[in-house]
Design brief:
Chain A is built from no helices and twelve strands. With about 110 residues, chain A is an all-beta fold. Chain B is globular. The chains are: A mainly beta (about 110), B mainly beta (about 110).
Chain lengths: ~110, ~110
């Protein structure tokens, strides 16, 4: 069955430090990959997506992610975080042989401390 | 333009009652999805509509759940004989076509007492 794993449920980090949020998915021939952010009491907002082309994808708010097909990973990175990045981050995958429905990871809460 | 809207924003109901949740997708979007977000299960897919094709119901957790999409636009998710485990935030999303980016609505928070 299709699955998406976010290895870290919570990641505490100091302001201006770099951060990496990890995401792995079950092996599949073709996938579309997404990262969404959910601020407290708000809806889901798309950070970035990989559909095809360059494996390094840049998104909003200085985030980027790299698609690694051999490791079936799509880790999210930011070189310097801000307090305002405190939120929950969800990795999501469309396994194309099953259609465009998204399979979500369990989420990672990023807590940025001053 | 307007995004995906959902109503009501909050719904409190008693166990055993039926509820209807509404989703208005972005105008012109042919694909519509329902997901739910709960503490125990995280974010999970429920059902997907694309144009006039038969919906993908593979994520519906039981036969108490059903959804329809009238005229290729508005969708209603119905939960019959609600149970406490149905308490969750129900999210609707739409995309311009089968493979487009999904835009999410603000959700309906359902609480079953």
């Amino acid at each position: 069955a299709q699955s998406v794993t976010q290895l870290d449920s919570q990641v505490p980090v100091f302001e201006e430090a770099p951060v990496e949020l990890r995401c792995n998915y079950s092996s599949s021939v073709s996938v579309y990959l997404f990262w969404y952010v959910q601020y407290p009491n708000q809806g889901l907002q798309l950070l970035l997506k990989y559909l095809s082309g360059s494996t390094l994808v840049k998104g909003i708010n200085g985030f980027e992610a790299e698609f690694n097909k051999s490791q079936t990973s799509f880790h999210l990175r930011k070189p310097s975080v801000h307090i305002s990045d405190t939120a929950e981050y969800f990795c999501a995958v469309s396994f194309m042989e099953y259609g465009n429905k998204l399979v979500f990871g369990a989420g990672t809460i990023l807590r940025v401390k001053s | 333009g307007a995004g995906v809207s959902q109503s009501p924003s909050n719904k409190v109901t008693e166990k055993g009652k039926d509820v209807e949740l509404r989703c208005d997708p972005i105008s012109g979007h042919t694909a519509l999805y329902w997901y739910r977000q709960s503490l125990g299960q995280g974010l999970e897919f429920l059902i997907y509509f694309q144009g006039n094709s038969a919906p993908d119901k593979s994520g519906l957790p039981s036969d108490r759940f059903s959804a329809e999409r009238t005229g290729g636009s508005v969708s209603t998710l119905t939960i019959q004989r609600t149970q406490q485990e149905d308490s969750a935030v129900y999210l609707c999303a739409s995309s311009v076509d089968s493979w487009g980016e999904q835009f999410f609505g603000p959700g309906t928070r359902l609480t079953v007492l």
